[in-house]
Amino acid sequence: MDVSPLVWTVSIGLALAILFVDVAVVGRRPHVPSAAECLRYLGVYIGLALVFAGVVALVWGTAPAGEFVTGWLTEYSLSVDNLFVFLLIMTRFAVPRQFQQTALLVGIILALVFRGIFIALGAAVIEHFSWVFYLFGIFLVWTAIKVAREGMGDSEDEEYTPPALVRIVQRVLPTTERFDGVHLTARIDGRRVVTPMLLVLVAIGATDLLFAFDSIPAVFGVTQEPYLVLMANVFALMGLRQLYFLLGGLLSKLRYLNIGLGFLLGFIGVKLVFQALSENTLPFVNGGENVSWAPEPPVWVSLVVIVGILAITTVTSIAAARRDEQRASVGD
Hints:
mainly alpha
């Protein structure tokens, strides 16, 4: 897939323009978006992603377009898990809902920056060391087991523990528990102190960094084309702010989300290991020769599996939530 510098420049420029519009809207009027507003934005962003997939299909063929859609859905599903952590952060710091939009937007910007860095590093490593797919695959399988085990725990008692960086900021800098709009600092009794908003942004930034470790190897398991990897991440992050407010309390009802993500990451991890085997160059594996029996599922199989996992996760979660509501109503 040959992507010219002009295409790279135009694509990144358009993404930044859309992000700028989002920033301008929030900066002009911090508020809690209505469900209708969220749906309008989500419809636009999903439509843009599908239009982009159509352009890729026309210019480079259906195979790259399928890789983009599969990568986009993978990143979108992982971003929903990211949203759940954001929800825990907002609850832990008691962020007023009218200020949550600004915090989320900063989190999305940080996520784009971190993922852009990881994509560049990942592409450079893959180009020179094909055996890195072994590491990616093993890491994703390990992460899948960890995520699935978390999903089997009691989500009702789940609490958010701020990362070490937040605790360091709290110890080093004078802080207040009172918000001052979306300002990061405030002057109280003639003393400049840090507001909880700064702590929230530090926590969100640390979360974005951790999630980049999972999401980038996962999308490289779908496509090794850096351009598609970047655009899949960009489109997955678009509308994430609106999705947060649209889902709201429903996020906590997706009780099987982590289990579903565990299966998804596990599938991609195994796929990466098989790919590494089929392109093997390590001398201590099969004498440095390719492993002929290692399967390489086509893109459409990956797309069907990922869509199936997400559909089953959503349907079973909603069904379980309804059963709990029915039991609660009978008990009352």
